[in-house]
Amino acid sequence: MKDIRYIFAIKEAMEEEMDRDENVFLIGEDVGLAGGSFGASKGLYEKFGPDRIVDTPISELGFTSLAAGAASCGLRPIVEIMFMDFVTCCMDSIVNQIAKMRYMFGNQYTVPIVIRMPEGGGLNAGPQHSQCLEAWFAHVPGLKVVMAANPYDVKGLLKSAIRDENPVIFIENKTLHAMKGSIPEEEYLIPIGKADVKREGTDVTVVSASRLVNESLKAADLLSKEGISVEVVDLRTIQPWDRETVFTSIAKTHRLVVAHEAVKQFGFGAEIAAAVAEEILDELDAPIMRVGAPFVPASYSLEKYYVPGAEDVKKAVLATMERTF
Amino acid sequence: MKDIRYIFAIKEAMEEEMDRDENVFLIGEDVGLAGGSFGASKGLYEKFGPDRIVDTPISELGFTSLAAGAASCGLRPIVEIMFMDFVTCCMDSIVNQIAKMRYMFGNQYTVPIVIRMPEGGGLNAGPQHSQCLEAWFAHVPGLKVVMAANPYDVKGLLKSAIRDENPVIFIENKTLHAMKGSIPEEEYLIPIGKADVKREGTDVTVVSASRLVNESLKAADLLSKEGISVEVVDLRTIQPWDRETVFTSIAKTHRLVVAHEAVKQFGFGAEIAAAVAEEILDELDAPIMRVGAPFVPASYSLEKYYVPGAEDVKKAVLATMERTF
Amino acid sequence: MGKPSKEKMIEMYRAMVKIRKTEQKLMEVFSNGEILGFLHVSIGQEAAPVGICSHLTEADYIATTHRGHGHAIAKGIDLKMAMAELFGKKAGYCLGRSGSMHLADKSRGIMGANGIVGAGIPIATGAAFAAKYKKTDQVAVATFGEGATGEGAFHEALNFAAIKKLPIVYLCENNGWAEFSPMSIHAPVQSVTKRALAYDIPAVSVANDVLEIYEEAGKAVERARKGEGPTLIEVRSERWYGHYVGDAQKYRGKENVAQAMAKDCLLNFEKGLLESKVLKKQDIEKINTDLDAEIEEAVRFARECPYPEVSEMMEGLYL
Amino acid sequence: MGKPSKEKMIEMYRAMVKIRKTEQKLMEVFSNGEILGFLHVSIGQEAAPVGICSHLTEADYIATTHRGHGHAIAKGIDLKMAMAELFGKKAGYCLGRSGSMHLADKSRGIMGANGIVGAGIPIATGAAFAAKYKKTDQVAVATFGEGATGEGAFHEALNFAAIKKLPIVYLCENNGWAEFSPMSIHAPVQSVTKRALAYDIPAVSVANDVLEIYEEAGKAVERARKGEGPTLIEVRSERWYGHYVGDAQKYRGKENVAQAMAKDCLLNFEKGLLESKVLKKQDIEKINTDLDAEIEEAVRFARECPYPEVSEMMEGLYL
Ligand SMILES: Cc1ncc(C[n+]2csc(CCOP(=O)(O)OP(=O)(O)O)c2C)c(N)n1
Ligand SMILES: Cc1ncc(C[n+]2csc(CCOP(=O)(O)OP(=O)(O)O)c2C)c(N)n1
Ligand SMILES: [Mg+2]
Ligand SMILES: [Mg+2]
Question: Could you identify the atom of ligand 1 that is nearest to the CA of residue B29?
Answer without folding.
Answer: 23
